[in-house]
Design brief:
15 strands, 15% strand, 2 domains, 16 helices, Transferase(Phosphotransferase), domain 1, three-stranded antiparallel β-sheet, alpha+beta
Length: 474
Amino acid sequence: MSDMQYVSGPRSDCRNAVPSSSTRKRGHSEVADDSDEGKQSKKRKTGESVVKLEDVHCFVFYPDVVYGHKCLGTLFTASSIRGRGTTVFSVVRNTKRMALRMAWQDDVTLMAEQDAVMKRLKDQGSQLHSNVIVPFMTEKVERGSKMCTTLGAIRGFLDAQIEELGVENRVLTISASDLKRPVKYFWGVHDFVRGLCGALLGHEYLTKIGILHRDISENNIVLGLRPEGERGYLIDLDMAILQNADEPTQPQPQSIKLWTRLSSLSTLKSHTLPERALRTGTFPYISYNVLLDGRHTQFDDVESFLYVLLLFFFSYAGPLSASELCKADEAGFVQSIGSGRSSHTRNWPKKYGWVDGETEAIAAQKYSAITISHGVRRIIKSTEFVDCLENNWPEELHDPICDLIHASFTIFHRSTAANRSRTEVSHADFVSMLDEWLNLYSHLEDKFSNCPFNQPEAFPISRAGLQGFDINIP
């Protein structure tokens, strides 16, 4: 850890606490004169021993109680200074492990939409789908008798001033749900694919009851704790709205070229809100239709699952070891403070990071990968993808991974709408293809799984379901 040693531990007095990473406390004399020379001089005058900065321990604390729950540590913290400032804790209440989530939700005026979504889910009662994780407790945090808002609680504006400002005013909310396994603790490729299938089934259910999720990403998919039972779930309904499913479009003889579409949209860009402001979702996973300001439908969410699948292989160098996975499970999957990111995580190559850059350029890249003949072959044969496989995944899995990516992009290529303005893959088609891949390569599951628990019976081998996808890469 170079020059500093990190010491982590619980910290009390934390009803509203969030993790901090403060260094040593500074004395009054140090505040008065911040220069190194000034600090050294004043310490000599007072007889204090001079301590070099590199010898000072760096203390990092996490709360031991969060809103009345015993805290095991932090599951997730938002990396961006923009957005909702989401923090998720692993907590225990009455011996039950839970995920407790704090977030500054959308503007007060938009909370009614989220309340309507939760009511729709509550009305389902026992009919609620097992692959959707719905919070069993959601509260708006209050201080005294007033809600905690960004303008009121943080910036200290008076109510009358807030009404006159006309700017976004977010509300602090907390919610509790069952603790599941984050994707980064996957046991193997097959385990992740099973989890993706489960999340797709959960999304299909939401679509059928008139709820559109609108924020499909790796962080909003979680995996089962044990091999038996459900293997994947969809979480986080913060961006969800009530919206009925779209029907697939009817075939039309004329198609619209991408550059024509981009040209027409670029003339409208100056009349819209700032770039990325109107779009919903986590940017690397957003469909090309939404990136090009198209209407967000369930088809766009299903396309986002495709990008979750592709970027997964760039994100990791295989799973953690069985012993590391077992320890993570016992610890409630909390982040190890001061140790940096997990040893098996990798940076995305710039070409496929889809985080920075021009929105239209990213949309064009996704569009060509899906709609142009052999677009997916360009991905599989790209230097970035080849290096990813060679450096991060066992050689025996290279062909199965290529087959998985190729078959997935193929069904999207065949599903594009009449004018190719969007993809129109159904949940059933995507899940069926993933199931067939699991069947086809079931003989590799145990060999390349680091699951620390007993494995369920493997699928029988079957090649029938993938025959129509031409998945062998020459």
